[in-house]
Design a protein that fits this description.
Layout: H1 19-26, E1 29-30, E2 35-38, H2 51-65, E3 70-78, E4 88-97, E5 101-110, E6 113-123, E7 158-162, E8 178-185, H3 192-202, H4 207-212, E9 227-238, E10 248-258, E11 261-270, E12 275-287, H5 294-297
Antiparallel strand pairs: 1-2, 2-4, 3-6, 3-9, 4-5, 5-6, 7-8, 8-10, 9-12, 10-11, 11-12
Helix pairs in contact: 2-3
Length: 299
């Protein structure tokens, strides 16, 4: 969810969130054999890098490491939080390289400590033998919706529009465990892998909010305050090339919530109904334990 990445409490001087800044963070640069680096963003009130950003970093690093093939799928487990105030070091190890497929292991570290690890699949492409896809949900088109407005969460150059204004901080507004969000960027990135990375960065935003929707008394505004949330695992599969300057619909449906977990499945559609990507996200959703006071520690 957006609050996993953005926080704008007074007194914190942070770089502006713009499309150019997102691309700078995602466009990891080589710094040795199989080694890449993502730059630091800078100080924020909640100094935690969003999972979708690190998954996008993995997509770009693998694409640069195996330029003859296209990233087909990327999956990562996020075992430890990373900070916006330091760069990320990314290691790519091609476990098997073939003419058709390459399997690469990607590990992201910060301050020499592992933060997340995963597997990326790349392939050389093939023409359709068969083709079919899940139909696009029947939802309002983006021109009928208003831009998503969350103070401090706006990214200059990115337009997000939520169907039925369902991304709502009101904990007493309930609905089905799903969110449909149109997203479009203003400027076209130079490379296909940056289109894929920008698409990836948004894929982890919606699971926690969708999981909370059916439950009165719980809302996304409670995250990191009275509810402990975070993305623990995410997978994205790219079916076709994508243009992030065209409207894309993220259709996220939570299939399970309980025992401190939430699981979602989603697809990304073009405005004319083509499926360009699918994703699954696993998240932590738990009560936030109050910090012990000095008196508590003496009991």
């Amino acid at each position: 969810m957006l609050s996993d990445e953005f926080d704008s409490r007074a007194g914190i001087a942070a770089p502006a969130w713009t499309q150019a800044e997102l691309q700078r963070l995602l466009d990891v640069q080589p710094c040795g054999a199989g080694r890449y680096r993502a730059p630091a963003h800078g100080p924020t009130a909640r100094d935690v890098v969003e999972a979708g950003q690190m998954l996008g970093d993995a997509v770009v690093a693998a694409a640069k490491h195996v330029p003859r093939q296209r990233v087909t799928s990327a999956s990562m487990i996020f075992s430890r939080a990373a900070a916006h105030t330091a760069p990320l070091d990314i290691e790519v190890d091609a476990l098997r390289s073939g003419r058709t497929f390459t399997t690469a292991q990607v590990t992201i570290r910060q301050h020499d400590a592992p933060r997340c690890a995963g597997i990326v699949l790349l392939d050389s492409g093939a023409p359709d033998l068969i083709r079919s896809a899940a139909p696009i949900p029947r939802v309002d088109p983006p021109h009928r919706l208003r831009p998503l407005a969350i103070p401090g969460a706006e990214v200059d150059g990115r337009d997000m529009r939520v169907v039925d204004d369902a991304y709502d901080p009101d904990p007493n507004r309930v609905g089905p465990p799903e969110l449909f969000v149109w997203t479009r960027f203003r400027d076209a990135p130079e490379h296909d892998y940056l289109h894929a990375a920008l698409l990836t960065q948004s894929s982890t935003h919606w699971t926690v909010a969708a999981a909370l929707r059916p439950h009165a008394g719980f809302g996304e505004a409670m995250a990191h305050r009275s509810i402990s949330t975070g993305i623990t695992m995410a997978t994205i599969t790219f079916h076709d090339d994508v243009d992030v300057t065209r409207w894309l619909l993220y259709a996220t449906r939570v299939t399970y919530a309980g025992r401190g977990h939430a699981q979602s499945e989603g697809q990304v559609y073009t405005e004319d109904g083509a499926v360009v990507a699918s994703y699954s996200v696993h998240a932590m959703v738990r009560g936030l334990e109050p910090r012990a006071t000095t008196a508590d520690t003496l009991l």
